[in-house]
Amino acid sequence: MDNNFALIMAGGVGSRFWPVSRTSFPKQFLDILGTGQSLIQTTFARFKKIVPVENIYILTNEIYRSLVQEHLPELSAHQIICEPVMRNTAPCIAYGTAKIRKINPKANIVVAPSDHLILDTENFVETINKALKASEIHDCLITLGIKPSRPDTGYGYIQYADDELLCEDLHKVKTFTEKPSLEIAETFLASGDFLWNSGIFVWSADSINTAFDKFLPDMNEIFKEGEKHYNTETEVEYIQAGFQKCVNISIDYGIMEKADNVYVMPADFGWSDLGTWASVYDLSEKDYVGNAVTNKERVIMYDSSNCMVNVPKGKMVILEGLHDYIVVESNDTLLICPRKNEQHVKQIVVDVKQKFGQEYI
């Protein structure tokens, strides 16, 4: 286990959960499902079952350092790896990998988002451990694929070769497809050889370093040169300059879609990326006409069905004649939109910022 590490990504702003998720207090620090723990706390608790606490690192933005410390007091300061500017997932993963590789060149690393839901923790732990063992033996880049239950257009899809196995349950990846149309998603589901892209990756430090060197060599060189600065007084200054030179690119586009040693492990552990209000609606308790209401003490609904209602405690809300709507109020902002248009929330945030500035974002 000493060679196993976890990089938990916690730098996003969760704009699709606006107005509850804000730049100053994003989704990963919220108790979205009312469990008594924030999403980052539940993610951290899962990984404590897989790797030693001292081998868990958080990738976040500098503005969230204090929030991470508040939510995860078990961590030492050096386990919180902060990017000075947001440059998508590839630069922060390259940075985190370089720091871990300096500590342990034989490291095997699992990279995972901080804000996903996993219902079957035991199955999750078993799957990750199996992937870590495979990455220790083979030169491969592993992604976990979720068996799809519906033709969802909000997820990326992975097509795999059923007859090309690296080892048990590890299939060669054929294609990646980002958020297809409903018609294409239905085709994917019917074919039986597509999985949802979970955004959870497993690889050895050597394998991912080789991939960075091949496909993102300029970026790799930045963090390779930074080795002499890591865990010293000059690290922050070096990283601030280095990140400015990095391209804004995801690990999926930068490496996973280009490398020829990418494999997928099918998984089924009750996963949701909790990416939208609809995903919370799906997981929430509903009344007999399909309404999911949080803080329901002062909410009255007439002739309304299949609505997601999330309002502050103590707020009096009366709704009549609403069907299949999202109603969310937080931070002096009220959002009302059809559930079918939930993917528009991200654009709404852009429009609000452009019209009213940063105050409401």
Tell me about this structure:
- With 361 residues, the protein is of the alpha/beta class.
- The chain has two domains: 4-272, Spore Coat Polysaccharide Biosynthesis Protein SpsA, Chain A; 277-356, no CATH class.
- It contains eleven helices and 17 strands.
- It has helices spanning 39-47, 65-71, 89-103, 121-137, 182-191, 205-215, 217-225, 235-244, 251-256, 277-283, 345-356; strands at residues 4-9, 56-61, 80-83, 108-113, 117-118, 141-146, 157-167, 170-177, 194-204, 262-267, 271-272, 292-294, 299-302, 308-310, 317-320, 325-330, 333-338.
- Strands 6-9-7-8-10 form a five-stranded mixed barrel.
- β7 and β8 (170-177) form a beta hairpin.
- The chain is globular and about 60 Å long.
- GO terms for molecular function: GTP binding; mannose-1-phosphate guanylyltransferase (GTP) activity.
What's the total number of strands? 17
The structural class is alpha/beta
How many domains in all? Answer: 2
Lateral strand order in the biggest sheet: 6-9-7-8-10
CATH superfamily of the largest domain: Spore Coat Polysaccharide Biosynthesis Protein SpsA, Chain A
CATH top level of the largest domain is Alpha Beta
Give the topology string: H per helix, E per strand.
EHEHEHEEHEEEHEHHHHEEHEEEEEEH
Major sheet summary line: 5 strands, mixed, barrel
**Proportion of β residues?**
25-35%
The CATH architecture assignment of the largest domain turns out to be Alpha-Beta Complex
Overall pLDDT, averaged? 92
Unreliable sequence segments: none
Q: What is the general shape? A: globular
Straight-line N-to-C gap: 41 Å
The number of helical elements comes to 11
* Topology-level CATH name of the largest domain: Spore Coat Polysaccharide Biosynthesis Protein SpsA, Chain A
Rounded Rg? 21 Å
Helix content: 25-40%
